Amino acid sequence: MSGEKTLEGMIVHHCAPVLRGIKPGGLFNAPALGARTPSPAEAGEGPVRREASDADLCRALREAQAKLAPLGVFLDTLATRPFGSLVYVYRPAMVSRMLGRAESARFLEGYGYPRTCAVKPHIERMRQRVAETDASPSCAHARRFPHEIGLFLGYPLEDVVGFIENQGRNCLACGCWKVYANERDAQACFGCFRTCTKELRELFSAGVPIEELTRAHAPRKPGEAAPEPMKRRRARTKRPRLRFLSERERSYLHDNERVRSTNMSNVAVVFWSGTGNTEAMADLVAQGASAKGAKVSIIQASDFGADRLDGYDAVAFGCPAMGDEELEDTEFLPMYDEVEPLLGDRKVVLFGSYDWNDGEWMELWEQRAEAAGVNVVDSLIAKDYPDDEASAECMRVGALLA
Length: 402
Known about the structure:
A 5-stranded parallel beta sheet has the order 7-6-8-9-10, sandwiched between helices. It has helices spanning 7-20, 46-68, 92-99, 102-109, 119-134, 141-144, 157-166, 183-205, 210-215, 247-254, 277-291, 306-309, 332-339, 360-371, 388-400, and strands spanning 25-30, 74-81, 84-90, 173-174, 178-179, 266-271, 295-300, 314-318, 347-354, 375-383. Strand 8 (314-318), helix 13 (332-339) and strand 9 form a beta-alpha-beta unit. It starts with 6 loop residues before the first helix and ends with a helix. It is α/β, with parallel strands linked by helices. The longest helix has 23 residues, at 46-68. The protein has 15 helices and 10 strands. Helix 1 packs across helix 8 and helix 11 (277-291) crosses helix 15 (388-400).
């Protein structure tokens, strides 16, 4: 197993700013280590194999905790699901400071969190909140997820409130989170986090242990000497230039009047998202179609079906890679099974995000759609949250539907 596919590699990939001490917490889904689809001959061993994979993950979590806890970084599992465990990596001291702010405490009280600066009771409440939403089948996961957890990840309170009130729409910028206030400060944070993540991933890939990456940034006791600076074991590569859409570009994309056509097409962007990555892609696809004059509706997979298809001339379907390179089978796949035979000659785009997979789920999805006679004009995938290149591609394929 390659370094970044180990649990420690996932921690570095998703939570480098936490290790470095510039962010209080990080959250990611850790698939069962070594999990794979069994062969027909092994099918009868499925539950045993899954239990073995879960045991490997639990052992890896204990080992990582033993290395990081003395350095002020802790791990807790918030939920265990069929497609992996939701792991919270955090610095209790930084989280406790957030809980000590009166406005944050009042906000969290509204969701049943205790009025205390102690971290563990809040983690227990987070577990309850995730369990409550996981148990509710009435609407899509991206809408159900308890987004107040963003505070425990270091997101500004005004952005967490803005996300909840706007249901993830109408943001000023997208990065590690969706921004609804103080865009300039947020973009500075995003750049800092990305630089940190790149540097720590390089060091980890070069063989620097995770505890050394964390020790260099651990709080020192009075009189304790500073740690020796880490030596890079390979040359540092040039950091790519990262940018967000300017105000002028964003204004252009949102201003339908500039590009309104007399024959406006109706486009549906239908998606399922577990972490928000595919939802961000859906927003960008919609922006691309809207910029070309289309009337666009962004719809959760659970709210779409054959009865709504007649109202649209083109459809973009978005679903991330799940499990062993497959579509989400609780809400998205039943919906897609229903509408696929009815798509006719409508233009269709397929899109989605992935993490540890290699994109095979999209190839299989395309093959299935084309075999069913679906008019697939393009497809695209993005690793994790869409970067600048993936964002541009999302808007490009969205324009194809207009």
